[in-house]
Amino acid sequence: MLPTPDLSHLTKEDFIRVYEPAEDTFILLDGLENDAVELQNLDPKICLEIGSGSGCVSAFVGKLLGSSRCLYLTTDINPYASKCTVSTGKQNAVPIESITASLDSPLALRLRRNVDLLIFNPPYVPTSSEEADAAQESRGIGGSWAGGTDGMEITGLFLNNLPNLLSTNGRFYLVGVAVNNISAIHQNLRGLRLDGKVILHRRAGREHLYVMKFMRILTP
Ligand SMILES: C[S@@+](CC[C@H](N)C(=O)[O-])C[C@H]1O[C@@H](n2cnc3c(N)ncnc32)[C@H](O)[C@@H]1O
Fold first, then answer.
1. Ligand 1 site, CB within 6 A
2. Which segments constitute the Methyltransferase small domain (predicted)?
């Protein structure tokens, strides 16, 4: 079992501004670790994590896949998260290039169909659209969870661009909760010619967490 990355360099003050790894983070790490052999065989050259927060997930993937053969890129709207991501990379000897930006906005064109491993543990908690918009605008910790209607407003924006980002054999890992309507997410992505399955689910308090994995449907 691969240990959780060392986050001892991050302080209580950091976690006032940046999402502290929690059950959703850990189920994602477990899902990725269960797929370790598949991912190692895939031999990704570009890994992109959207919403990296503390950097825990990308540092974990760096340990899982090695840091010399793959470029680790992350985005987060929260500038403090970008800083923490870089320092977590350094702390765990995984070079991570972190960009403060919304979703894949500055990278979408350049990375077109080149992302081999794409990861998103999004803000998935249902809130009003106003709360989600305000959280996105303030770029603070509230953006870690405020997901708007059905908790899907931010994720939904991202999913539409997914087929443009993923490489031919690329894998996309997404965290969600039951209220996000997991089967509707699958149906929506099927319409974009991406096939998916739930690779892990777990109850955590009142939340029912899911890790989904998607890849392109390659047959005509
Ligand atoms: C649930 S937290 C997950 C953090 C980390 N990946 C983890 O698993 O512990 C969601 C993260 O997404 C970021 N986020 C929210 N909206 C975003 C957006 N539009 N673009 C990029 N990142 C965003 C938040 O700032 C937060 O760091």
1. 19, 21, 24-25, 28, 50-54, 56-57, 75-78, 81, 102-103, 121-123, 136, 143-144, 154
2. 43-136
Q: For residue 179, is it within any domain?
A: yes
Pocket perturbation via mutation, ligand 1, pick of 10, 18, 78 by most ligand atoms within 8 A of CB? 78
* Per-residue pLDDT tens over the stretch 137-183: 999 999 999 999 999 999 999 998 899 999 999 999 999 999 999 99
67 has a pLDDT exceeding 90? no
Domain membership flag for residue 2: no
Average pLDDT, the chain: 97
CA of 220 to the centre of ligand 1 (A): 35
Say what the pLDDT of residue 120 is.
98
**Nearest protein Cα to ligand 1, atom 18:** 102
Query: Could you please report the per-residue DSSP string of 79-118?
Result: HHHHHHHHHHHHHTT--EEEEESSTTTTTTTTTTT-EEEE
On whether residue 7 sits in a domain, the answer given is: no
Measured distance between the N- and C-terminal CA atoms of the chain, rounded to whole angstroms: 39
- Domains: count for the chain: 1
Distances (CA, A) of 184 to 26, 27, 180, 187: 24, 21, 8, 5
On whether residue 122 sits in a domain, the answer given is yes
CATH code of residue 97: 3.40.50.150
